[in-house]
Amino acid sequence: MAVILVAEDDRQMRDIVVDYMKKGGHSCVTAEDGIEAVTVLKNHSVDLIILDIRMPFLDGFSVCRMAREITQIPLLFLTAKVSEEDKLRGYEYGADDYVTKPFSPKVLLAKVNALLRRSSLCPSQNAINIGGISLIPASRVVYVHGEAIPFTHKEFELLYLFMQNPNQVFTREQLLGRIWGYDFEGSTRTVDTHIKTLRQKLGDEGGHIVTLIRSGYKFDV
After folding, report:
1. Average pLDDT over all residues of the chain
2. What is the enclosing helix (H) or strand (E) of 19?
3. What are the φ/ψ torsions at residue 85 (nearest 5 degrees)?
4. Residue 108: which region, alpha, beta or left (left: phi > 0; alpha: psi -120 to 50)?
5. Can you state the percent helix, strand and coil of the chain, rounding each to 5?
């Protein structure tokens, strides 16, 4: 059972989401606005966040950005705001997925369960060390030159996949399927956005991630 934060200012919508999460075996804490959502994150142990974008006092993008300073748990936007630029902005701030309104509660629950499964996959206790990067799957921690660097859930999974498969070329479509899932509705630009952020966080070690024109990416060692 996971603890899920549902941040949604529409009471009826919030009740629907909470009801389905409980039917799926999870418990919920709720927030009616952005400030309350950040307060809940600071004071409760939460495993996943379902977040609306248009909320009073503090919008979902701001909450997402602040949440990433507190935790790297999966974060899913549930919103009617669906332009590609909005989606890319959300991913840049650290979102892991989007569900657009109107939505199927069953699909929402399925996506939540998929994110929770992926976040709990820790097949090895041993660190993977390449160059100045040390990745520890069990604790989902990455060190760059000895300094712990915070990564979002998707950024960590991308780096983990690359470091498990050095020198293997992945197309953008393959990365979308492996990391986001084959039911992901976004474009391959999402991959490019995450790769850009990943390189920035890796600093001088970001050069390991090589872009191959018309092919995709590989982790060059």
Report:
1. 87
2. helix 11-23
3. -65, -40
4. alpha
5. 45, 20, 35
Q: Using CA atoms in the order 104, 106, 107, 108, what is the torsion angle rounded to 10 degrees?
A: 90
Same domain, 149 and 71: no
Q: Which residues pair with 76 in a beta bridge?
A: 50, 97
For 114-144, letters b (16+ CB in 10 Å) and e give bbbebbeeeeeeebbeeeebbbbbeebbbeb
Q: Which residue range is the domain that position 94 belongs to? A: 3-119
Mean pLDDT of 108-116: 91
Long-range Cβ pairs for the range 67-70 (8 Å, 24+): 67/37, 67/38, 67/41, 67/94, 68/93, 68/94, 68/150, 68/152, 69/150, 70/38, 70/41, 70/42
Residue 158 has pLDDT above 80, yes or no: yes
The contacts of residue 42 (CB under 8 Å, 6+ apart) are 70
Residues 177 and 81 in one domain: no
- For residue 170, the number of C-alpha atoms closer than 13 Å in the C-beta half-sphere is 27
Its pTM stands at 0.59
Q: How far is CA 63 from the centre of its chain?
A: 14
* Domain co-membership, 113 together with 52: yes
Radius of gyration of the chain (CA): 17
CB atoms within 10 A of CB 67: 26
Q: Cα dihedral sign for 32, 33, 37, 40?
A: negative
How far is Cα 49 from Cα 146, in angstroms, rounded to an integer? Answer: 30
Q: What is the pLDDT of residue 184?
A: 63
Q: How many domains does the chain have?
A: 2
